[in-house]
Amino acid sequence: MWLIGSLVHWLICFGSLPSKQCFGKRAYSCYNQNGSCLDKKVVVETLRAITKILLPSQRTRLLHRLRLVNFLHEHIERKLVLVSASAGYGKTSLLIDFAHETALPVCWYTLDASDADPKIFLQSLIASLRHTFPAFGSRTATLLENVSLAREVEVIVGALVTEIYETIPGYFVLILDDYHTVEESEVVNRILDTFLRVLPENAHILLASRTLPSRLTLTRLTARQEIAGLGVNDLRFTAEEIRALIQQNYQTALSETQATELAETSEGWITGIILTTHSLWRGLFQDLVRVPGPHSHVFHYLASEVFAQQSAELQQFLLGTAILDELVPEMCDALLGAQDSAERLTLIEQKNLFVVRLEQEETWYRYHHLFQDFLQSRLRAADAERWRTLNRRAAELYAARGAPERAIKHYLNAQLFDDAARAIESIAKETFDAGHLTTLARWIDALPAEMLDAHPDLLLRRAMVFSDTGGPTRALEIFACASAIFEKQGDANGIGKTLVNQAVALRNLGATRTQLIPVRER
Q1: Distance between CA atoms of 262 and 267, rounded to whole angstroms?
Q2: What whole-number distance in Å separates Cα of residue 245 and Cα of residue 64?
Q3: Beta strands in 32-114 (DSSP E)
Q4: Most Cβ neighbours (<10 Å): which of 306, 315, 337, 364?
Q5: % pLDDT > 70, the chain
Q6: Other beta carbons within 10 Å of 149
Q7: Three-class DSSP category at 117
C-alpha cells in the first residue's frame, strides 16, 4: 500500500494525473508553501528516505522504563541529549517511548550507512523536519543542490538554521537514531557539529549511538551545560525492571533473588534477557541464570550484530585479548606482540563493544562476560592452535610477573597440564591456608588423572579439601591413593603427612583411634 501511495503521489507531482491535491502531503510534502511542486530530485530523495523518517510505533513487549523516560523529559531543554550504549541496551525503544509521550513535536531520523554521504544526510534531515513541519525545507533543499558541501558546510547549515527560525516557531525535538553508522564521515560530523553550535533555541536534539560521537565538540556543550546523557550504567535493566519485564511478557513471577541473579548475570543487557527468556516458557529459570553456550540466541546475535561489523584487525584484537580477564594495555601488548593496545582499548570503549572500565582506572577494562564467552568460543572453534598459543604466552607472562593464580588458569586452557600442576603445587599450601578451598579443588579437578599420579601432593591437598568441606569419606579414599603413590616413591614425608590428615578425616567421621590401624596397614 505504501508503494502504491508513493507512486500515485509521484504521478500527481510529475506525471499525467491532473489533480493538484497532494495525497499524504504531511508525510511527503512535495509542495512548496505556494502550492507548486518542489524540484523533482527533492521529491525523489524524500520518497526514498520516508522509511527512515517515520516515527516507529511503540513496542508493547518492551517495558516502559519510566525512570529513563523521565530523565529525557527533565533534560530535553538542553541542546543535546546523548544516549550511548552497545547494541541491545534498549536505546531505540527508549527514544520511541519518549517520542510518543512528549507533548513536543518530534522529527525522527534513523540513520544507516548510506547517510555517511553528507548530501544524503542533509536530504534526509530536511525530509525529517518537513515530515513534521510541511512548510519547512524548500530553500535549504534548493541551496543543497548548488553548493559544495565539503567547502560550504557553514553556508548550508546557516540556511538550514535560518529556515528553521523562520518556519518552525515552536519548540520541537529532532531524534537522530543510530548515529554510529555515520561516525566515520568527517563532513557529516562537521555538519552536525556546526548545527549544534548555531542551533536555534526552540530546537533540541536527542542522539542515540553505539559509540560516543568523539568527533563532535562535546566539551563546549558541556562547559555551557547544554548537554546531558545516558550511558550503559543508566540503560542496564535493574532487578525490579527485569521482574516487571518478565511478568509483562511471559506472565511469570520472578522472586527478588532470581531477578537480582539475572540482573547480575546479564549485567542488565536487555537483549541478553529477552533472547534467553524462552527458557521461562518451560519453567527452566536455571537455564536463564547460566551463561548461554555457543549455540544460544545470544551467541548468534553477538556474531551478527557486533563482532561481524568490526574491521578484521579489530576482530583479531578482540579474539586475542578475550582470554584475559583484565585488559591492561601493557599486558595486551606483551601478549600480542603489539604496541597499540592502549589505542585499541580506547577505540573499543568508544565503540561500546561490551567493555567495562574497572574501578575507574582509565587503562583497566574487562569484557562483558557474555561477550567474552562469545569471543573465546569463536577463537577456540576457528583457531584452536592460536587459542593454546595465546594461553601459553599469557601463563608465562603472569608467572614471570609473580601471579601464579592467573598463570594456572592459562596453563589449563592451553592444556599444559604438567606446567599447571607445578604451578598449583607452588601455591597449594598458601591457597589452602587462605581458605580458598573451592579454587584449589577446581584447579586440581581440572588436571587429568594420570597427571595427579605424578603429583601425589595435589592428591593429598584434594583429600584435605574434602575433609574440611564435609566429605570425609571421599577424603579417605583419596588419602589412600596418595599414600600408595608416596609409598611407591619411597617418600616418607609424604606418607607421614597423609597419615596425619587421615586421622583428621577419621575424627570428622567420629572414628576411634583403633580405626586408624587398618588405614596405616594399607
Answers
A1: 8
A2: 9
A3: 80-84, 106-110
A4: 306
A5: 82
A6: 19
A7: coil
